[in-house]
Amino acid sequence: QKEVEQDPGPLSVPEGAIVSLNCTYSNSAFQYFMWYRQYSRKGPELLMYTYSSGNKEDGRFTAQVDKSSKYISLFIRDSQPSDSATYLCAMKQVLRGKLIFGQGTELSVKP
Amino acid sequence: GAGVSQSPSNKVTEKGKDVELRCDPISGHTALYWYRQRLGQGLEFLIYFQGNSAPDKSGLPSDRFSAERTGESVSTLTIQRTQQEDSAVYLCASSPPELRTYNEQFFGPGTRLTVL
Does any CB of chain B come closer than 8 Å to the CB of residue A34? Predict the structure, then answer.
């Protein structure tokens, strides 16, 4: 079993829809949780970061972490075609440490 | 400012040959990471350098893989006797020395390696 599980999709939604992306994990030692966005043939870029449990909002994006369930989510409101990309969840145990990534979910937002 | 750069952007090699991949981190970043991303997969950790500390090599898949870093600058990842299963995008990331709340890793564009 992988440490981090993520549905690879692909996920296709109409413009303006609310998108929900999720990951589950097995290692309770993870404390730092990130969402990266990766466009085709580019390196990943950090989108959202959360420490421990809780919610964090940034514009149209909301990240949630539920450590009791070992479950993290990313919500995208009013999705735009420019949001079409692969979204990777990632987590780490210590501040300076290796990231453990999910498989990535490919999202397509249709105009 | 300049981001993380990697070279070459693409590399095609024959099975059994050795390859060297280069990473130039962001100036002043003390930490450097190598990851591998197979087609349709997430990133897989390979190795981590932090300043003058011994590197964390726990992700290297076999002794055919090795990496070096010169001080706090350039790093090279070497794969000896390449195999077809080594075909992947190899990504490098660096992070700054100050301990911010999340110590973000900044990624380069990757080197796409194809082993024929």
Answer: yes
